[in-house]
Amino acid sequence: MTTPTDPLSRVRELAEARVCTDRVRIYIPGNFNPDTWESTPDVVLWEGPGSILPDRAADVRVTVGDGQGTPVSRIGRYRLFTPISAPEHTVTLTTSADPDATGRRWRVDAPVRTSAPVLRLTWQTYDTTTNGGS
Predict the structure, then answer these.
(1) Residue 5 CB-half CA count within 13 A
(2) Which of 9, 87, 129, 133 counts the most CB atoms within 10 A of its CB?
(3) Helix or strand run (H / E) with residue 15
């Protein structure tokens, strides 16, 4: 029996097929110059399979009148899963099983490093400025 050169390659294939079921576009956002009223276009770095999942953990705890700490989400944090080859940057969902999510944008918050990479995990923040405030 031969040992594969990359022991995680089969796990990676399965994870990409089962988790990365949407299509994402990773890009550097263009800029608007208020002096010239011109915009530079987005620079697409990568486009391919991915998945965006909300983070259910609370960002802050608010203490109410009864003294109990109540978890409250202050910002929309999300996890972006992509193949290892994908870069880390701003992302938009180009195709999704959820039609309301298609076209939405997220900004990169923090990449995650691991010693056994199967999928790339990048923390994202929901971009209310480019999503019409919602």
Answers:
(1) 0
(2) 87
(3) helix 9-19
Indicate whether this model's pTM tops 0.85: no
Q: Is 76 helix (H, G, I), strand (E, B) or coil?
A: coil
Tens digit of each residue's pLDDT (9 = 90 or more) over 17-61:
999 999 999 999 888 888 889 999 999 999 999 999 887 654 555
Tell me the C-alpha distance between 76 and 83, whole Å. Answer: 23
Q: Which amino acid is at 120?
A: R
The sign of the torsion formed by the CA atoms of 48, 111, 130, 22 equals: positive
- Token duo for residue 121: 């995990």
Q: Measure Cα distances from 11 to 47, 71, 96, 97, 117 in Å.
A: 22, 35, 23, 24, 10
Residues in the chain, total: 134
